[in-house]
C-alpha cells in the first residue's frame, strides 16, 4: 500500500463518509466523443462496493448534466449525482437557468459552426465549446478566445482540456460537494478529480477536517494527494473499500 492509499484508508474510520469523484478522466477515459466515455471495467462494481458499506455515500460529480451523466455511465441508485459543475443536483435545475443557457447557445452557435471540427455541447446549465477534434490548432485557440469574449459578465468561464465551458450560474464543484457533505452530516470526505474545474473542490475542502483530495494526472494542483492515472484511482478506491470491509 502506498502512502496515499494509507491516508485514504484512514477515512474508513470516519462515518458518515462521502466519496465524491469526477467522472471523465477519473472513472472513464477521455474520449473525443463524450458519449463514448464509458466507465472503466472495474469502476461500477468498485463504486457499488463502496456504496454498500455502512454510512457511506458515493457521489458522481461532473460538468455533464445529470441526465447525460447517468446515461453515459450507466449508473443509477444508490449513487448521488451532481452535474453541470455543481449547478444541477438530483432535484433538478431552475427553469430560469435553462432560459439563460439558450440565449448563450444562440450567441455561440455561429462561432462554432465556422470552425471545422469544433463542436458545441449544450448542457443543462452551461454551454461547452469543444476543440479536441479541430486539426488547425491556431483556429482552435482563436475559437476559444472568441467564445470567451462572447460570454457576458454573468457567465462563468470554466476552461478544461481542449474545451471552454461557459456556465450560466456561479455554482462550482466545491460549493456543491460541501453542500452535499453538510446534508449528509459527513465526518469524512474523499474527492477525486483530474481537471481544472476540480480545483474548486480541492480548494473548498482544504480547510475541512477529515477531507482528503486526490488529483489524477499531471499539473499544478491544490489537492493533497496525487495518482498518476486511472489505474491509480482503482488502487486507491480498492484500498478504501478493503478498509471499509465492503
Can you offer a commentary on this structure?
The chain is of the alpha/beta class and 246 residues long. The chain has 2 domains: 3-87 and 171-244, 3-Layer(aba) Sandwich (Rossmann fold); 95-167, Trehalose-6-phosphate phosphatase related protein, domain 2 (Alpha-Beta Plaits). 37% of the residues lie in helices and 20% in strands. The chain contains 8 helices and 10 strands. The protein has helices at residues 3-9, 43-51, 66-73, 95-113, 137-150, 173-184, 199-205, 230-244; strands at residues 17-22, 56-61, 80-82, 119-123, 126-130, 156-160, 163-167, 188-193, 211-216, 225-227. The strands form 2 sheets. It has a 6-stranded parallel β-sheet with strand order 3-2-1-8-9-10, sandwiched between helices. A 4-stranded antiparallel β-sheet has the order 4-5-7-6, with helices on one face. The longest helix has 19 residues, at 95-113. Pathway: Glycan biosynthesis; trehalose biosynthesis. Belongs to the trehalose phosphatase family. Keywords: Hydrolase, Magnesium, Metal-binding.
Q: Please give the CATH architecture of the largest domain.
A: 3-Layer(aba) Sandwich
The CATH superfamily name of the largest domain is HAD superfamily/HAD-like
**Biggest sheet, spatial arrangement of strands:** 3-2-1-8-9-10
Shape: globular
Query: What composes the largest sheet?
Result: 6 strands, parallel
Low-confidence stretches are none
Which structural category fits the helices and strands? alpha/beta
* Helix percentage: 25-40%
**Radius of gyration, in angstroms, nearest whole number:** 18 Å
Number of strands: 10
Amino acid at each position: 500500500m502506498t502512502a496515499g492509499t494509507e491516508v485514504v484508508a484512514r477515512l474508513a474510520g470516519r462515518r458518515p463518509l462521502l466519496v465524491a469523484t469526477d467522472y471523465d478522466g477519473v472513472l472513464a477515459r477521455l474520449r473525443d466523443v463524450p458519449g463514448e466515455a464509458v466507465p472503466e471495467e472495474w469502476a461500477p462494481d468498485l463504486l457499488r462496493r463502496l456504496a454498500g458499506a455502512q454510512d457511506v455515500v458515493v457521489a458522481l460529480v461532473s460538468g455533464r448534466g445529470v441526465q447525460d451523466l447517468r446515461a453515459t455511465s450507466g449508473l443509477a441508485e444508490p449513487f448521488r449525482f451532481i452535474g453541470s459543475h455543481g449547478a444541477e443536483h438530483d432535484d433538478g435545475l431552475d427553469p430560469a437557468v435553462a432560459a439563460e443557457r439558450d440565449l448563450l447557445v444562440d450567441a455561440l452557435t455561429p462561432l462554432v459552426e465556422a470552425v471545422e471540427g469544433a463542436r458545441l455541447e449544450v448542457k443543462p446549465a452551461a454551454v461547452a465549446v469543444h476543440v479536441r477534434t479541430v486539426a488547425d490548432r491556431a483556429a482552435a485557440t482563436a475559437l476559444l478566445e472568441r467564445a470567451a469574449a462572447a460570454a457576458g459578465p454573468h457567465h462563468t468561464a470554466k476552461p478544461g482540456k481542449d474545451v471552454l465551458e461557459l456556465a450560466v450560474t456561479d455554482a462550482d464543484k466545491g460549493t456543491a460537494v460541501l453542500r452535499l457533505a453538510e446534508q449528509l452530516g459527513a465526518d469524512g470526505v474523499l474527492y477525486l478529480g483530474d481537471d481544472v474545474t476540480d480545483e474548486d473542490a480541492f480548494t473548498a475542502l482544504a480547510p475541512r477536517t477529515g477531507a482528503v483530495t486526490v488529483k489524477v494526472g499531471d499539473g499544478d494542483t491544490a489537492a493533497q494527494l496525487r495518482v498518476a492515472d486511472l489505474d491509480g484511482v482503482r488502487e486507491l478506491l480498492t484500498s478504501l473499500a478493503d478498509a471499509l470491509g465492503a
